[in-house]
Design a protein that fits this description.
heterodimer, A: mainly alpha, 9 helices, elongated, B: mainly alpha, 0% strand, globular
Chain lengths: 210, 117
């Protein structure tokens, strides 16, 4: 996508299209979409370089359609139209990514179940007397220690949870850090810095990160 | 890469707010593909995407006439053909809504008639 992330419409023209939407002009939705859809997709892809382009497109469709269906939710006194659309599309993208993560997480959970059935479902593994101990060890391996908990900021805690869930996409961590607007190398550098910091703290607290 | 506007026009085919929805129902009932629908409406193919992204005309007669005229003039369509297609599509939409509602009532009645344990 090589479109400009800015609409060709001036703020006054954008407002004019918006007023036509409110006046139920039948051509207004088409004109609105023609003016804002492509720049919105371009902007979203630009600010979320690690995210699948198709996800940015979907989020933009969602944002544009919702705006067209409920134009009165926008207050021109508070925000420029393009800024409002960007905010809505970014939120839609986050929701989309969250849904996708949940979907992957569920699939991973099912894999674990399938694996378990092959490995020992019929071996009465739950009768193993060391099972409670194994569970506690696994829990301790994953949970940050009390000291570590106290040192963690909210962002670090979300970061840590994602690491424990096996998340590897830097875009997810960059979104948590709120640095998706930066160039990718810089995003990666910042993500790595936080990961290293957390791993070091975990080691100091008495356990290697797995 | 597909034109995002065209993808959006397909995306909203189930949303009655957009002309894409009524036109899709009409085309489906008449077994018309996009090309045939354009021929029926006298719509230049390059305007087809924008046409589908228009708002479905108001159903009250005066609003309907006004909106039809505006859309037909904008894209150089045959106004009579467009009005026929939209009325047909709207009728199908109502039928679909009524059928869905009736289905819900029937399901509720069925549930009532189930023998109590």
């Amino acid at each position: 996508m090589h479109d400009s992330p800015h609409s060709n419409l001036s703020a006054a023209d954008a407002l004019r299209v918006y007023r036509r939407l409110l006046d139920r002009d039948p051509l207004a939705p088409a004109d609105f979409a023609a003016a804002f859809l492509k720049p919105l997709i371009a902007w979203l892809q630009c600010t979320n370089p690690g995210v699948e382009p198709i996800a940015c497109e979907e989020a933009s469709y969602e944002a544009i359609v919702r705006f067209l269906l409920h134009p009165t939710k926008y207050d021109p006194q508070r925000l420029a139209l393009e800024a409002f659309l960007r905010m809505a599309a970014q939120r839609d993208l986050q929701n989309l990514l969250r849904k996708e993560r949940r979907h992957h997480q569920n699939r991973r959970d099912w894999n674990v179940v399938e694996q378990a059935s092959e490995d020992g479902k019929y071996l009465r593994k739950d009768d193993d007397p060391s099972l409670p101990l194994q569970i506690e060890e696994a829990r301790q391996r994953q949970a940050p220690s009390d000291t570590m908990q106290q040192q963690m900021t909210d962002v670090e805690r979300r970061f840590w949870e994602q690491m424990q869930q096996g998340e590897r996409r830097h875009a997810v961590f960059a979104a948590i850090l709120g640095v998706t607007h930066l160039p990718i190398p810089e995003q990666k550098r910042q993500v790595k810095r936080v990961k290293d910091r957390l791993k070091k703290r975990k080691e100091r607290a008495g356990g290697k990160h797995g | 890469m597909a034109d995002p506007l065209d993808t959006l026009a397909r995306w909203v085919e189930n949303e009655p707010f957009f002309l894409a929805s009524t036109l899709a129902l009409f085309a489906q009932s008449e077994a018309l593909d996009d090309e045939a629908l354009c021929r029926f409406l006298h719509c230049p193919p390059e305007s087809f995407t924008m046409l589908r992204l228009c708002r479905t005309p108001d159903e009250d007669p005066s609003g309907f006439q006004r909106d039809m005229k505006r859309i037909a003039e904008q894209f150089g369509l045959d106004e009579t053909a467009l009005a026929a297609a939209v009325r047909h599509g709207q009728a199908l939409q109502h039928l679909r809504q009524t059928t869905t509602a009736a289905g819900t009532f029937l399901a509720a009645r069925d549930a009532e008639e189930e023998p109590q344990p």
